């Protein structure tokens, strides 16, 4: 057997794959690649390249220091900020997911330097580096690392800090010059706005009508169009057979529905409000001017002529004229963004739970002037002007399903016991992203100073929908890679995909106590099948069905032995909205168990009462040293058993929390000593010990209760007189 113990970790990426810029005090550096954390299905160049230093302990006792390469697992992206270095490493080596579809998750993209005196939280710490490693030091003398606490809890490094000992304490003596390293951030919502605006740069946000007509930016995935394009606005050609399509590479699409997730062929979104990001584009291709030679006959002579046609685009206009969901026409919020909120009254418009089509309609109108005629030196000349108007309408539809958590309720039952509180979470109504049911995200239970979270099995991975954008003009096509960087011309289109994982429990660990969870009872109601995900996402928990529960219960153990604590609970769905939550608390009470031995009858009577002396009937008492393993107390709280050992040990395990009782009582122990059970005639103390200790498990209690002293005195009285 080889025991592996992790000693330290060193980030090691594939050669040339990851460069983490070292901070230079006061110099802002960009971390564009941090936005790759939002594209879980992209290639992770550093995956399987994280090297961990470990010690291996062999069976022969030898210890060997080795390096191991480990595969990184998906990392949860919280609502709070992450640091630039962490974001870069995760983007390079792993994938990220969220447990909910709400909040303003922020991604760092640039260094930010702030004087220590201007930092909003002045709590800082100074850590001496006894090895004087300048690569780890932030102080000017290279002997200390100085850090200031961020409001989210982590510590930001402070550079250019002059550290001196003042009145026996280390302190920073130049807070005006010392610089705190933090980051500039952009939210995921801002990122999606950048995505749609990037695709609209040649249409709705083009600098001029000519620029809008010249180029169409078409998102593609490995050469295939994400949104099918169409050609239209056909006009006849003067002097030539056939026709010409004025409108080329026109499309309208749907990047994402927010808040929403793409799940099993449709967007799942809340019934109270939704927004959608609609990109579109087109270009106009004007027919080339044309001329051809001909002739005319005047008398007996033939003369040459030229038939010609010149084309000029008088006007073109395109816009998304309508976005509908069910019977609601969404309001235009900003370029490429539409919402069910009535922007006149600021009131959201609800779409009752159900399935709908979300349809965007793009209308393109063109006006073409055709100037044509005949030119000749001798033949009759003439010219004419014809104006042609053409309209192209195209639609893009995605299926959506609106859900809410109105039907879902959570009841939290806490059975308050010293150091072993039972917490039972009970769900009523639909769970998951089923018809009319929003998924729950977490249930928070606070018992005094202890906080636990029951976390839902849903994981939401943000994935890229395109790999390139093709810029199509009359001169050809140029493929531009869809970038994950902050300043990319075409940020990759993103939407969420859902993957089930498992229901789990997290417990906050206060500094002054330990908390741990022991699951004791679950009631499953159904399972959620695995959901197809891009192969590049490592989601091992998605490979098997995930169970949902009607009830999930266990013991919240802690070093805190307090009872009578305040208890609160709240639950929320994946949209961040509260779920109807109720709390009930059952306080356990003390019980007492006495054991009285009847020496003459060879029996023992157990008596189970409350701390106030109230008899407790119908409780099971288990025994050591009795003729039966267990009995049930009668209406008077008593029960009688035959004694078979020197010590009669009785145990009441306490009321089981799932039993229906008006009052619940804690466990209790009782002991009784039977002298008549001693084996007479033993000639040595070992004989008495063997008779008295019939069970090794009660040896400790035997010693504690002084039974050894009792037996020893009896042995000394009953042993035969020694011969002198």
UniProtKB/TrEMBL annotation:
It comes from the Archaea. The chain crosses the membrane at residues 696-715. Keywords: Membrane, Transmembrane, Transmembrane helix. This is Ig-like domain-containing protein.
């Amino acid at each position: 057997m080889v025991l592996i113990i992790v000693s330290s970790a060193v980030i090691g990426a594939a050669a040339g794959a990851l460069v983490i810029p070292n901070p230079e005090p006061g110099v802002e550096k960009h971390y564009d690649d941090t936005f790759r954390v939002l594209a879980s299905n992209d290639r992770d160049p550093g995956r399987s390249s994280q090297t961990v230093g470990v010690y291996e302990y062999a069976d022969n006792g030898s210890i060997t220091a080795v390096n191991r390469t480990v595969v990184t697992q998906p990392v949860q992206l919280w609502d709070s900020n992450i640091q630039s270095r962490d974001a870069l490493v995760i983007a390079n080596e792993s994938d990220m997911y969220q447990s909910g579809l709400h909040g303003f998750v922020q991604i760092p993209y640039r260094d930010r330097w702030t004087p220590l005196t201007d930092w909003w939280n002045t709590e800082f710490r100074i850590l001496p580096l006894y090895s004087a490693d300048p690569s780890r030091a932030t102080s000017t003398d290279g002997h200390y690392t100085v850090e200031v606490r961020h409001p989210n809890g982590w510590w930001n490094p402070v550079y250019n800090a002059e550290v001196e000992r003042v009145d026996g304490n280390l302190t920073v003596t130049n807070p005006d010059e010392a610089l705190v390293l933090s980051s500039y951030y952009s939210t995921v919502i801002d990122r999606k706005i950048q995505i749609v605006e990037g695709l609209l740069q040649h249409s709705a946000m083009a600098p001029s009508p000519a620029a809008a007509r010249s180029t169409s930016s078409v998102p593609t995935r490995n050469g295939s169009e994400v949104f099918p394009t169409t050609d239209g606005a056909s006009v006849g050609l003067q002097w030539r057979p056939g026709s010409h399509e004025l409108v080329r590479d026109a499309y309208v699409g749907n990047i994402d529905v927010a808040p929403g997730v793409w799940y099993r062929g449709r967007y799942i979104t809340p019934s109270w409000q939704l927004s959608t990001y609609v990109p579109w584009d087109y270009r106009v291709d004007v027919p080339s001017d044309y001329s051809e030679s001909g002739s005319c006959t005047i008398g007996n002579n033939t003369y040459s002529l030229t038939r010609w046609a010149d084309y000029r685009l008088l006007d073109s206009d395109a816009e998304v004229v309508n976005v509908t969901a069910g019977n609601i026409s969404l309001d235009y919020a900003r370029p490429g963004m539409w919402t069910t909120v009535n922007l006149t009254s600021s009131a959201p418009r609800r779409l009752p739970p159900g399935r709908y089509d979300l349809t965007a309609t793009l209308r393109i109108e063109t006006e073409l002037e055709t100037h044509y005629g005949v030119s000749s030196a001798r033949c009759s000349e003439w010219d004419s002007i014809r104006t042609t108007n053409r309209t192209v309408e195209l639609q893009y539809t995605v299926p959506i399903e609106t859900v809410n958590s109105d039907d879902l309720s959570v009841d939290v039952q806490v059975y308050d016991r010293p150091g072993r509180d039972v917490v039972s979470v009970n769900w009523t109504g639909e769970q998951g992203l089923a018809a009319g049911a929003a998924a729950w995200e977490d249930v928070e239970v606070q018992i005094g100073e202890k906080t636990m979270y029951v976390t839902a099995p849903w994981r939401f991975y943000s994935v890229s929908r395109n790999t390139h954008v093709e810029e199509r003009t009359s001169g050809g096509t140029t493929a531009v890679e869809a970038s994950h960087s902050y300043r990319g011309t075409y940020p990759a289109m993103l939407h969420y995909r859902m993957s089930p994982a498992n229901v789990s429990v997290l417990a906050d660990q206060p500094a002054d106590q330990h908390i741990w969870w022991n699951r004791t009872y679950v009631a499953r109601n159904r399972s959620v099948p695995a959901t197809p995900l891009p192969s590049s996402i490592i989601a091992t928990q998605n490979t098997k069905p995930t169970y949902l529960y009607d009830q999930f219960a266990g013991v919240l153990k802690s070093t805190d032995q307090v009872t009578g604590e305040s208890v609160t609970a709240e639950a929320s769905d994946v949209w961040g909205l509260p779920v109807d939550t109720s709390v009930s608390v059952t306080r356990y009470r003390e019980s007492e168990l006495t054991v009285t031995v009847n020496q003459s009858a060879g029996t023992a009577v157990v008596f189970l009462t409350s701390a106030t002396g109230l008899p407790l009937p119908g409780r099971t008492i288990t025994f050591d040293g009795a003729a039966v393993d267990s009995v049930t107390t009668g209406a008077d709280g008593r029960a009688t058993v035959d004694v078979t050992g020197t010590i009669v040990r009785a145990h009441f395990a306490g009321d089981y929390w799932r039993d229906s009782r008006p009052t619940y009582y804690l466990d209790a122990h009782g002991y009784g000593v039977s002298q008549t059970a001693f084996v007479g005639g033993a000639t040595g103390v070992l004989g008495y010990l063997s008779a008295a200790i019939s069970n090794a498990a009660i040896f400790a209690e035997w010693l504690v209760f002084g039974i050894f002293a009792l037996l020893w005195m009896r042995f000394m009285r009953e042993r035969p007189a020694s011969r002198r």
